[in-house]
Amino acid sequence: MKKTILAKYLLAAGVVFAAVPAVQAAETGNAAPETAHKAAAYIDDSVITAKVKAALVEDKQVAAMKIKVVTRGGVVTLSGSVPSAELGQHALQIAAGVEGVRDVKSDLTVKAG
Fold it and tell me: Angle, nearest 10°, between helix axes 33-58 and 85-96?
């Protein structure tokens, strides 16, 4: 499980470093401000996604569930199947507690079995 968390942090770091040139270009006046804003928003969303995934993996109740996390503009959407409504609500609460999350939406479905 520690390898999974490490891999997610490394993925987030890769996304951050991949967007650095676009942000630097905008700061030096070599790119449109809109480009820099989009790059910064993409970095923020990627970091939030990585943090939410890490928080879900660290929680013993939801770690085994396959929940997809998508972030746009700080709004996190969780999707996938959960064994109960209570565990789905718990996953939503975990996501809401992550720094940078503005709102959480659910596309989770309860699938008994």
Answer: 130
What gap in Å lies between CA 4 and CA 95, rounded to an integer?
18
Amino acid occupying residue 72: R
Tell me the angle at which helices 2-27 and 33-58 cross, rounded to the nearest 10 degrees: 170
Phi, psi of 110 (to 5 degrees): -85, 125
pLDDT in tens, 21-62: 544 554 555 555 665 555 555 568 999 999 999 999 999 998
Are the C-beta atoms of 59 and 92 separated by less than 8 Å? no
Cα separations in angstroms, 48 against 24, 80, 95, 112 = 21, 18, 9, 29
* SS3 (DSSP) at 69: strand
Q: What letter would DSSP give residue 91?
A: H
Angle ∠(33,105,46) on CA atoms, nearest 5: 40
